[in-house]
Amino acid sequence: MGIMEKMRLDGKKIFVTGGARGIGKSIAYAVAEAGADVAIVDIDIEEAKKTAQRIAEDTGRRTIAVKADVTNPQEVDEMIETILEQFDRIDAAFCNAGICINAPAEEMTFEQWKKVIDINLTGVFLTAQAAGKVMIRQGGGSIINTASMSAHIVNVPQPQCAYNASKAGVIQLTKSLAVEWAMKGVRVNCISPGYIGTDLIMNSPSLKPLIEKWEEMSPLHRLGKPEELQAIAVYLAGDASQFTTGSDFVIDGAFTCI
Ligand code: NDP
């Protein structure tokens, strides 16, 4: 089989958490364009439905929208059940939902800390665990977690210790699962994006004013676009990446190089 054929995802069943908008939406589009049926999982079910419908219209693939809060184990289990009812199997799972809260460490409330860790780290664990169980039973699958360049560097000037710690946790969780599940046929990798122009940044009153500063700091002098993460997502979801597990892919326009 040639490489371009291996990059196809025809017939695969894939879900994306945080798939309603931003990076998750872009990943969902990409895997559907490559031939997969996609479940858009999000806490915002109205937006998830719109995204699912648009992707189905544009790609001709089957899509469903599923509501789940990734911090709630029961909702995650129900989300997996719904996907299995509709799709029968899960070939790839993108554990992508995440948030950022900025607060100086000495002022960060317990609630702020807990919310970020719950969604960004515990949410990834719960989702990967639930998907992993299905994939082990099936004899294989690919899990792709969204970490961040913030797992590698400390972003400035904004204070975001909980976010940075949560994302560093995602990388080590990814590696741990990759080793535990290697012989069970389940591959686990993560993507660490640099600054990407999504609602997370554009709709945040505290982050938006910093964009110019980040662009100045970046070797490419611009933010990344969600679609610039699509190729790595398709590669990791499919059969072209059979020997790739336990890896973290930093896609940041060289931001962490300097
Ligand atoms: P967005 O805010 O654009 O999209 C995130 C989506 O996840 C939203 O639809 C959001 O819903 C949903 N979501 C939030 N909380 C939950 C939850 N508990 N359960 C289910 N869904 C939830 O973010 P991005 O697309 O920018 O970010 C996606 C991932 O990429 C995150 O993990 C983020 O940390 C990471 N990332 C982003 C970077 C960037 O520069 N944008 C850089 C590096 C990493 P709602 O809007 O209703 O809260």
Question: Which key terms come to mind for this protein?
Answer:
Rossmann fold, binds NADPH dihydro-nicotinamide-adenine-dinucleotide phosphate, 7 strands, alpha/beta, 258 residues, single chain, seven-stranded parallel beta sheet
Distance between the termini: 40 Å
Beta-strand content bin: 5-15%
**Under CATH, the topology is which?**
Rossmann fold
Class, according to the CATH hierarchy?
Alpha Beta
Spans where pLDDT lies below 50 across 5 or more residues:
none
CATH architecture: 3-Layer(aba) Sandwich
SSE succession: HEHEHEHEHEHEHHHE
Q: Total number of helical segments?
A: 9
In CATH terms, the superfamily is: NAD(P)-binding Rossmann-like Domain
Estimate percent helicity: 40-55%
Strand neighbour order, sheet with most strands: 3-2-1-4-5-6-7
Overall morphology:
globular
How many domains make up the 3D coordinates?
A: 1
Radius of gyration: 17 Å
Structural class: alpha/beta
The biggest sheet amounts to:
7 strands, parallel
**Total beta strand runs:** 7
Ligands bound here?
Answer: NADPH dihydro-nicotinamide-adenine-dinucleotide phosphate
Q: Mean of the pLDDT scores?
A: 98
Summarize it:
By secondary structure, the protein is of the alpha/beta class. It contains 9 helices and 7 strands, in the order H-E-H-E-H-E-H-E-H-E-H-E-H-H-H-E. It starts with a helix and ends in a 7-residue tail after the last strand.
